[in-house]
User: What shape does this take?
Amino acid sequence: DTEVTQTPKHLVMGMTNKKSLKCEQHMGHRAMYWYKQKAKKPPELMFVYSYEKLSINESVPSRFSPECPNSSLLNLHLHALQPEDSALYLCASSQTQGRHNEQFFGPGTRLTVL
Amino acid sequence: KQEVTQIPAALSVPEGENLVLNCSFTDSAIYNLQWFRQDPGKGLTSLLLIQSSQREQTSGRLNASLDKSSGRSTLYIAASQPGDSATYLCAVSNTGNQFYFGTGTSLTVIP
Assistant: This one.
């Protein structure tokens, strides 16, 4: 099973709302990633978790708050977002860090901020 | 910081043609390079992973090569089909857990 699942598929929220994105994998991977992708642009790395610890934060605004409750789950908590945060949010996982870490992506959550 | 460029940005070919997509990167000290395809509004599907010690990888009609010293990788697609129409992205990793994506090539295969 090489599947990464993400929920919800679509999310519309106002600037004062609090919502969460969820990502799950059951491949035994110990690295998990959040990316943001705007239309016709490549994915941009936001956060990396390694062995359930935050290892990389690419200077992401604090209105995005990641959480890794266990090795299979990754959440992204959203609060006080701006319309420019509307994008496709992608989750990925990989077995290990290093030369063998093939990344597997989920289908993404399409976020619209009104 | 690693800069990754893909040429061409868009490509349109008739069905059955063989084609080559290019990926260039500025820092040759990479751990690995991965090729993906992305259908509109969807997630990324992994096609091939080439480790820094490898020269090429093959999967079905796909063949990816890596020339670290020159900072280049190519993705060769044989006998293209309309189902191959998608955006193709390459991503390089310098540290093992930080990936830099290229700008992508949008491929259209005309029946």
Remarks:
- Chain A touches chain B at residues 4, 6, 31, 33, 42-45, 48, 50, 55-56, 88, 90, 92, 94, 96-108, 110 (CB under 8 Å).
- The two ends of chain A are 36 Å apart (CA to CA).
- The mean pLDDT of chain A is 93.
